[in-house]
Amino acid sequence: MPTPAIPTVDLSPFFTAGDESGRKNAKDVIAEACADYGFFQIVNHGVPLDLMNKAMELSKTFFKYSDEVKRESSSSPGAPLPAGYNKHPDHSPDKSEYLLMFPPESPYNVLPTNPPDFRKTLEEIFRYFVKTGQILEDIINECLGLPPNFLKEYNNDRSWDFMVTLRYFPATETENNGIAEHEDGNMITIVLQEDVEGLEVCKNGEWIPVIPTEGTLVVNLSDLIQVLSNKKFKSATHRVVRPKGRNRHSYVFFYNLQGDKWVEPLPNFSSEVGVKPKYRGFYYKDYQALRMRNKTHPPSTPEEIMRIGHYEI
Ligand SMILES: O=C(O)CCC(=O)C(=O)O
Ligand SMILES: [Fe+2]
User: Fold this and answer.
1) Fewest CB within 10 angstroms: 52, 162, 269, 290, which?
2) Within 6 Å (CB) of ligand 1, which residues are found?
């Protein structure tokens, strides 16, 4: 049986005034993918191809440096997430090392000075990803039938957005997990993957590989959209399986929500339509802190991993 593909959506109608039918087609595909499994890919998204390629090459160069050099970019404790360079503890199911950054102006950032241009490129691609996140949020706002600019006004503080540049180590003879099956805890995630497979999405109970294609970005909806929409739109379940014999590099941009925001199913999808809320409300910072413990103190069984189900009614 052919592998069911993940849809690819052309975002160019959103950059061209007046292409209403192009916009409608794109929104129909996105709405269907989001209602089923929360995953799709985008092209003509506004992030320049040469910038994506340059960012990937510089990241590969950085991760080849010695641990000692990379650790010069590790953050001091106290940041809301471990900014800078880090490697997951040996007993973690996540087999990668990564560089995490907040918005370019954030005081928490500890960005490498080498390779030259890396810092500038990270900051530049971060700014592009923010714009892509805003376009996607606007499209999702429309797909959900919310009043114009509703999500934009609710999510009006960009200071908690963050981006992770990753290197996964090659699979061993006995073990190939890169990131175990999970959903993301933010609003919308954008992934740039190099030409090395590994990312898989769960679509109707089946694991589908997301084949890397030059110029394409992967988008997955995350937990906060699932809660706000009272499960009308799904937070995508996904994982990374490490290939044998080679590293895998990716950039993951987490379009996020500021921590003091209250999150609960919107009345549009609960009281106003006679449906019971499927989640109790929470402050986003509490959820992010609970999820952070999954990473810093990995539980011994997958059942103990903190997920959005914690708030389910
Ligand atoms: O590296 C990837 O392709 C995806 C990573 C991911 O799912 C995550 O960091 O949450
Ligand atoms: Fe993820």
Assistant:
1) 290
2) 164, 166, 179, 184, 191, 193, 199, 238, 240, 250, 252
Residue 67 belongs to what domain range?
Answer: 8-308
Largest pairwise CA distance in the chain = 58
Lookup: tokens for 310: 């914690």
139: in domain: yes
Q: Is residue 300 part of a domain?
A: yes
Q: Which tens digits make up the pLDDT trace of 154-196? A: 999 999 999 999 999 999 999 999 999 999 999 999 999 999 9
Task: Tell me the CA–centroid distance for residue 201 and ligand 2, in Å.
Answer: 10
pTM assigned to the model:
0.96
> What separation in angstroms does the CA of 258 have from each of 36, 59, 287?
27, 27, 12
- Is residue 3 domain-resident? no
CA of 106 to the centre of ligand 2 (A): 23
Task: Express each pLDDT in 262-308 by its tens digit.
Answer: 999 999 999 999 999 999 999 999 999 999 887 777 777 777 888 99
Domain count across the chain: 1
Please report the atom of ligand 1 found closest to the CA of residue 199. 3
> Which tokens in the block code for residue 73?
């970019």
